[in-house]
Amino acid sequence: MTAKFRPTRRATLVGLSVLALGAGRVAAQGKAAAKKGGTLTFIQNNEPQTLVALTTVATPALTVSAKVTEGLLEYDFDINPRPLLATEWTISPDGRTYTFKLRPNVKFHDGKPFTSADVAYSIELLKTVHPRGRNTFANVTEVKTPDPLTAVIELSKPAPYLIKALTAAEAPMMPRHIYEGTNPLSNQNGNAPIGTGPYKFKEWVRGSHIAYVRNPDYWQAGLPNIDTLIYKTLPDTGARSIAFENGSADLGYRTPVALSDLDRLKKMPNLVFETDGTSYSYNVSCCQFNLDSQYFKNLKVRQAIAHTIDRTLMIKTVAYGYGTPTASPIAPGLKAFHDPSPSPYNVDFKKAEALLDEAGFPRGANKIRFKVPFDYNPIADEGRRIGEFMRATLSRVGIAVEVRSQDISAFTKRVYTDRDFDFTYNGHSNLFDPTVGVQRIYWSKNFKKGVPFSNGSNYNNPKVDALLEGAAVEIDPAKRKAMFFEFQKIVAQEIPDIPLYSPLYLTIKNKRVHDDSLTADGVEANMAHVWLDA
Amino acid sequence: MGRRIAATLRRTALHAGPTVLGIIVLDFLLLQLMPGDAADVIASESGVATAETMAALRHQFGLDQTVLTQLLNFLGHLARLDLGYSPRYNMPVLDLILQRLPGTLLLMTTALSLALVIGIALGSVMAAWAGKWPDRILSVVVLLLYSMPGFWVGLMAVVLFSVKLGWLPSDSNMTIGANLSGWSMIVDRARHLVLPALALASFFVAVYARLVRTSMLEVQRQDFMRTAQAKGLHPFLIQLRHALRNALIPVTTVAGMHLGNLLGGAVVVETLFGWPGMGRLALEAVLARDFSVLLGVLLLSSLLVILANMLIDLLHAWLDPRVAA
Amino acid sequence: MTVDAQLADLGSRAAPRQGRRLRAFLHNPTFIAGAVILGFFVFLALFADWICPGDPQDMVAQPVLWPGQDMQFPLGTDSLGRDVLSNLVYGARASLLVGVSAASIGLAIGMVVGALAGYFGGRVDALLMRLVELFQTTPTFLLVVVIVAIREPSLSTIALAIGLASWPTVARLMRAQFRSLREADFVMAARSLGYSSTRIIVQEILPNALPPVIVAASVMIANAILTEAGLSFLNMRDANVVSWGGMIGDGRDLLRTAWFLTALPGAAIAMAVLSLNLVGDGLNDILNPRNEP
After folding, report:
1. Which of A264, A388, A410 sits opposite C257 (nearest CB)?
2. Verdict on whether the full-model pTM lies above 0.90
3. What CA–CA distance (Å, rounded) separates B242 from C21?
4. Could you report the per-residue pLDDT of C148-163, keeping only the tens digit for each?
5. A294 touching B, CB under 8 A?
């Protein structure tokens, strides 16, 4: 099987909102002629620690990175690859050789040409310092550069997810001449980046904002449309709401305001809410058990908890309706892999009580079976509300839950280093493929003390291990899907964690902003096409 | 007087060294007690990690060294007036703090001046008309200011002045991207300063007003005040000339102590208004377990407070000759 | 009057003044008003279980019911469908507890340190003031944040952190009082009569140094309640206990639509703090010996 793409016609349609053709709805929007000029203000919750998503994939860094540092490919909303810095690519039938033709005449902001040497260097760099790249590019044995515009990636084993991993934020193409011979973690390029992107870095006023200006020499002639792109940090949720309301913010994503405030903001005539451009990274929120806990090592207790959880009610009260219920750790958005069957454990409080009795935890004094702490990952707003929801729900079956608050560092240490927890509310990013986003949580070989977001339950099932390892190298999509379906059946039964829902993220923008989310990664992409009404 | 100033300066200098050392050791130990480290935070923000990236991060932060080595390293840097390097922000801590310091100083001095001026004015009026209607009305106003959380006052002010009336901006310290200069820049900065400074000052206005009133009433009962009254001077003039001078001792004492409080209050206000200051940096550093930055901020604010208290000691010597230098 | 007579007078005032003081309390409208309001909150705090039986954190009804919309929940429900009235009642318990325990810790440490430093001066003063400086030069709120971060943000940790961070204020105030009073005539006289330091501190200076400290105590309880609210604003709060600060923190997201969720606990905080201040002012009027004719 040879997959070969020759999107040459598209490449000639430069500047005519080519990317918008990917989706009908957006194409309609794209019909209006893009206006030139203006300043777009993007609002962020937190300031990034670096402006290049090389050593971190924290959200604030992902938000800004691609504006300067681009990737080889971009993706439509269904994660089908489209050319960016690479114009065409082939994958060998054995899935072990990827050949990329690079776009000619692409220059970094300092005038140096972008070549296959940069690609080879970047992939080596990603393999060593990128938090995910170490796994994504683990099978890469060599990157050959037969000529300046050809890069050939050789793999020891197939990596069927690799072709989806080449966005700007996930696999940034770094300038080799700036990084070579330096420590990538402390390279000053992270503070004042150079890249091939549509925007040039102008200034970073710490604590206030980051400013980018139009790159007049961008390889897509005529783009970008706007003159200035500002990333402003506003740590307070309420302040962000007000900024959208009074027009001082143009754009923000991953629902930058309180969920409870959305109904009110949606009535504002100057604001637009969209869900396009969120398909590259779905999250699944779950109730994760410590299988070494004296209570939750018992399957019956876990089943009892599962029988009390009403996902619909939870989404309504905790997430204000902005979520899709899922009983699978693979998000419903990953349509190719998600098993939509409901949880084998329906909402049934009587059954839950019976299971707890059977498990040897009868109701004792004060009608309480046992008292157990519940920790939540504080990085998302809804964590505490989930804790309070669990507390109220489980009190109905005689389990006294004490909700324990702590900051992110304390939470991570408790769960992954000290393993001093019983059950938690946690969220995992699925990303673009289950091998990258889901395997790590269930694979017994990834039970690693001290490594955050590894197999925190300490789940160990050889059958599951075999399925995950098989799917990681299976190049037949049908077989791969079958493997993931079997995996989902097993974990749904054994519930090392209870998947709850997949949050629905909204991008909020002023109605004067257009063509901001045209790819799977939406505003995390280079935003070369974005334009503003005058 | 001159000898007194010299003595105060000498004493402060002698104090400052050990105090600073004590602060560093105390803070360092407190910070060591916090669960988790900078690498945990960075990995959590990314939502992904491998054993190798964690090890690399810990090495980068020097967390693979013993606590004692880390402390000695910090002190070694400090001896060369260097606050060390923050791997998280990828820049020297001193540079990072100096970028944020002006914003906080501006906010703090504005708020403190506002609070002192308004507070002393209100307090004097209340004391002069003690028990009469101006005192009663102002007492209620002051008590209300005193009883409302500063962030709540700020929030309400934002809703009113920024959202409803559209008079004042609600976030940042300037109109970003506007490239203003000269007079229009100053006006722009001032407009951005109003709401955060008021939110920060509201509580302290009430504190000073109450304190001034209490102290002035105390002083009023003393003999020299009765003498002045007997001379037939107008009560308000007596207040200003005699009572206020004495009332300034507790007020300045408290104001000096409030520098630390103000910086603490700045944490909340800077967060609320997206103000690029040191308070927010400190909070971020706590959450990020970026100890080099947090130690730097704590050290610098300590120096600020030491300096302020030295000035206040001098002021006291001038206000009340009975106080030995 | 001679110095000796003055001293004798000062010493003898304690006993007969008891009766007069009680009357003074009853005749001070500020104190009465404050005590009544404060008493109301203390009553709520003590008898919360009896006034509103059941867990206040239970999700009992439809979220965000406005006050009066459903008479079963006269003050409405919050975003998780919890009864606001019952939360307010239980919140009194948590907020007062945080305020009183934090202030007690702060006062206890601060008074001892301040009195010793101010009275003895010299090396004792230098040493203690260095300790005060150590704590005081660290921004209070940051210190609280750091201590809370060391342990999880439970109610007891928050109270401890606020107490540990707030004592330098009292110490300095106490020291300033002692420093100016130790040179006062009646102290000099007491010293010349050979009274012990303990006696001079406790019996002679302390009563005269107390008024500002009493005002400070009310400030501290109020401060602790407000600090707890500030911590809640930054999401550092005990998820198991309802406090007014926590309610504001929860309601803040809905500030523009369901303002009562912020306003009601805000008003509760304001009223409680107000009552504390009235009581403090009243006490100040009554206890200040120089107040008497």
Report:
1. A264
2. no
3. 30
4. 888 878 888 999 999 9
5. no
